[in-house]
Amino acid sequence: MTLSESAAAPADEVVLEAVGLTKHFPVRRRLRDLLSRTPAVVHAVDDVSFALRRGQVTALVGESGSGKSTVARLLAQLHPRTAGDVRLHGRSTRVRGGRAFRAYVRRVQLILQDPFASLNPVHTVRYHLTRSLRIHGNAGRTAADLDRALADLLTRVRLTPPERFLDVFPHELSGGQRQRVAIARALGANPEVLLADEPVSMLDVSIRLGVLNLLQDLKERLRLAILYITHDIASARYFADETIVMYAGRMVEGGDSETVTQQPAHPYTRLLISSAPDPDRITGGGGDGTAGGERGHGEPPSLIRPPTGCRFHPRCPHAMPRCAAELPPRLTIGDRPGHWAACWLYDPATAAADAPAAPDADRAVPPAAAVGREGATTLGEAR
Ligand SMILES: Nc1ncnc2c1ncn2[C@@H]1O[C@H](COP(=O)(O)OP(=O)(O)OP(=O)(O)O)[C@@H](O)[C@H]1O
């Protein structure tokens, strides 16, 4: 598909979908494990479903180890999946290298966290971009075509004038400029989807916004579908149209970013927000970084033997007996269209019965300011 074709397509068209996506990694077996019939596995991702739409950013948020990068790698076809499906324009896709893989990556590009690692230090910007354009058949026929395509890529990522950047090596660039080159290289494929795995977390705080603004601009101008993976829920509010929260390999909340970050429903999302390093970036947080948010306790669970029922229940200040026994489905919150949480607090039966954790009787959702007075603090491995 050409750029002009993609610009003409409807904005909310689903491009890439995860459907019940599941990934279990085998664990190296110890002697005593050999006696066990069921081999141990890491439940990295379980039953994850969402859609990436043209011209929209979807944020996947969660603490370290929640399975975000594994989802990106599954969508990029870099891991075989244990179960579930990846659908590109509605068609199930499973590619393992070769020509099919090249055709897939032409449409779905992955941008990694560390531009130092993803650019070869012995090659110039010109080399990296030319290689991408050639591999994906976008270099044109003549040297002049190639020069135009190179200048166009650098201009798109706002490295201008292009001739100043073409013949420099990665170490001569700042971190932000290197990430822009990595984005330009991804654009060399003329993709429909960008999977951006923590694209700004290794950059200085002062230049993060510039790179996020660039991605936003590309989303709008090229109508890209973008998956933005981050542990920083504050940036999801700013940058993403939709936000999905993951905990211990499962999706726990989703909805439009404004609602998920300003009226979080799941106790884990509340904990994530109350632990955000800069509470001023999210209204409703207090100056001490905890007021106005949830408090939980403990560490993230083992993914080899994940907790039964809701995986957050051992840390949840609102846990009920049911939470340990039954896996909560996605339950509609009802405040804004599309807002859901996988939490038994939002089951009408819970609200009607004892509702021990719903201080606001008119609303099954515990308001952020009213919940979370119990328990100790801290978010295990949040970075
Ligand atoms: N190749 C692998 N083999 C075994 N376990 C893995 C592998 N890759 C990831 N895992 C495990 O899967 C779980 C999810 O990891 P993943 O990297 O997807 O989480 P994440 O949310 O992206 O974390 P981070 O922000 O630290 O990258 C972790 O427990 C991790 O140790």
Automatic annotation (TrEMBL):
Start and end residues of each ABC transporter domain: 29-273
Q: Name one GO molecular function term.
A: ATP binding
Name it: ABC transporter ATP-binding protein
Biased composition range(s): Low complexity:
356-370
Q: Name one Pfam family in it.
A: oligo_HPY
* Region annotated Disordered, chain positions: 273-307, 356-383
Q: According to the UniProt entry, which residue ranges have a biased composition of type Gly residues? A: 283-293
Keyword set for this entry?
Answer: ATP-binding, Nucleotide-binding, Transport
Q: Which PANTHER family match?
A: ABC TRANSPORTER, ATP-BINDING PROTEIN, TRANSPORT ATP-BINDING PROTEIN
